[in-house]
Amino acid sequence: MKGEKVKDASTKTYGSSAMSDFFRHGSVEEKRAVYFAAANAAICEQKDVIRSVKPGELSVEKFK
User: Is the backbone of residue 56 left (phi > 0), alpha (psi -120 to 50) or beta?
Assistant: First the structure.
């Protein structure tokens, strides 16, 4: 019935991850540093991909 506890119901509680704890309790400066590092890494990876493409390999004709 409504309001009764089910015997087999799971009582396991799920803890938060270290990352969610960090973003919940970290300071603004720490969060900003993490965002900056992630953005900088992404930009560097994009630059590496662009550098790895041989000049002239991508032609404008492919995109028309």
Answer: left
